[in-house]
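Take a sample.
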Amino acid sequence: MIQDSLVVAGKNYSSRLLVGTGKYKDEAEAISSIEASGAEIVTVAVRRIDLQNDKDSSILDYISPDKYTILPNTAGAYTTKDAVRMAKLGREILGGKNLLKLEVLDDPKTLLPNMDSTIEAAEILVRDGFEVMVYCTANYESCMKLEDIGCVSIMPLAAPIGSGQGIAEPQKIQKIIDSVSVPVIIDAGIGTASDASIAMEMGADAVLLNTAIAKSENPTQMALAMKLAVESGRLAHKSGRIPKSQPSPSSPEKGIIES
């Protein structure tokens, strides 16, 4: 395959699949699945790291920063203040690294982003030197605002977190992909490999998912399926699909042998 790197905050990645670390039945399953996914960026909730008081049992002992780019996220934040606090804690835990996935949720039931608070937190964190990858709705105006603020990646949800519904509003997602100049990473709602492939065929720069792998019947096998789907979708996008049209024969009509 032609070398085709994902570039986030000036760093090149060969994989366009980002994965999470939650919801697995145990650490062994998480490690096996993450390895099978081929992901180079792995997102970890700051609150999960913070709860590990014994360094010997830290999640970072089996998802090593030496092997992966650890992307701390502010999952569980429902206010600007909480998101900023989590972000600073994540930077401290990871030795001053500024890359961050910002999430500010509206409520614990829908897990949808609170866009007013997300934009407010993004402004504060970008000013403070963070490289913000931002989880957001598929609202065009909000996404453009987040890019203007200086976020390094826009991450619109395909559907609500953990729902497995796939890309619920493709027209909105497509408009964002076509308009935003920083990487657009589809985040949340992916259910199976075909959803990931469709996102990439639309021109998304990458896909981030967790539940679709962790809660599948065979997570390690599904992780491999997602890896291949993202690669296939990206290659199809770069190849250029044929336009939709009326039926046409695939064989030449001239020079055929008459019966």
